[in-house]
Write a structure and sequence with these properties.
Length: about 325
């Protein structure tokens, strides 16, 4: 009778060679969860309450920290509370928290549609993901401790409960994606405004360890906005007359920013610091569910109640495609102009 030893030995070797592969996947998931837990632990209620809005206004030809005054008149809505938690924007829009240049900051963001398995994407402003002044086009310029909290205004108690008792919980970034045109701008200037978008790749999160798709997402569409189109702008302004705890919106026709060589869009709006990165719904009928993400809140002019944002184009699509691809680490996309 033929011996079974060679056969059994082969089976043993095959099983042994497969073991590291089997073990690698749980290890990666465990590491991802540990990093998520580390970031959410970093954001104590005290840190969240102290996080400053990272917004910019233009004064005398220079872009300066907004100090609560980005963003006259002539719009249908220049700043009002979004009514009755209407539509999926009420859960797709959220607050963004991150650490950058030695400080803690807050912005806004919108969950976006994607085709990645096991991940979700969030659209925000480039300056809410990368230090355009000190990053010098290197990977060192990316924000750290980046966290997204959807449906911020639906949580039971402001700043007192953080992630565990908020409405849906928190999602944290595994990777951030920014265009080199922004990363190499050398400061928040005209070039930066042309590329002021970013995408965050987040893993499962929230209270149920789920993806953001469960709360609703919007697709990103470059080139969808035209002059005179009615846009719906969303965000969580946290300065001036606003307190940062209410989903706020503006609605009105687009103009081009003559002070920026007509290279960016503007809408009459009085949202203040903290609204940066909030999404613009193009083609929406005002129900909070229809439309696509065709822009975002970026900057304003001191004393002028307008919000401006970049024109989404092929470079925006390239950044989105990189985030929607296979990368799982911070990525600079394209080349600087």
């Amino acid at each position: 009778m033929r011996s079974l030893r060679p056969y059994l030995a082969a089976l043993f070797l095959l099983a042994a060679s497969a073991m590291p592969v089997v073990a690698a996947q749980p290890a990666a998931v465990s590491a991802q969860r540990a990093e998520h837990d580390r970031i959410t632990a970093y954001w104590t209620p005290a840190r969240m309450a102290a996080a400053a809005p990272r917004d910019f206004v233009r004064t005398g030809g220079q872009y300066v920290p907004a100090a609560g005054k980005p963003g006259g008149s002539g719009s249908r809505v220049v700043g009002a509370s979004w009514p009755n938690l209407k539509g999926k924007i009420s859960t797709a829009e959220g607050k963004v928290y991150f650490h950058m240049d030695g400080g803690d900051w807050q912005c806004s963001g919108t969950s976006t549609s994607d085709s990645r398995s096991g991940y979700s994407l969030v659209l925000t402003a480039g300056h809410c993901a990368y230090d355009e002044t000190n990053g010098h086009g290197s990977l060192n310029g990316f924000a750290t401790n980046w966290m997204f909290m959807p449906a911020w205004d639906q949580q039971p108690a402001t700043f007192s409960t953080a992630c565990t008792n908020s409405k849906y919980g928190c999602w944290t970034a595994q990777a951030l994606f920014v265009h080199n045109g922004f990363a190499n701008a050398g400061g928040f200037n005209d070039q930066a405004t042309h590329y002021d978008w970013a995408f965050a790749l987040v893993g499962p999160g929230g209270k149920s360890n789920t993806q953001l798709e469960a709360l609703g997402t919007f697709s990103v569409q470059a080139g969808s906005v035209a002059k005179g189109d009615t846009e719906y702008l969303y965000g969580f302004p946290a300065a001036g007359k606003y307190h940062g705890n209410d989903l706020t919106y503006c609605a009105g026709p687009t103009v081009e920013d003559a002070g920026n060589s007509n290279s960016t869009w503007g809408v009459a709006c009085d949202m203040t610091g903290g609204s940066s990165g909030g999404g613009w719904l193009d083609g929406s009928n005002g129900d909070g569910t229809s439309g696509v993400l065709g822009g975002l809140n970026s900057y304003g002019y001191s004393g002028v109640k307008f919000m401006y944002g970049p024109k989404f184009n092929g470079n925006t699509s390239a950044t989105y495609n990189a985030a929607n691809g296979n990368a799982t680490t911070n990525t600079l996309v394209g080349v600087a102009p």
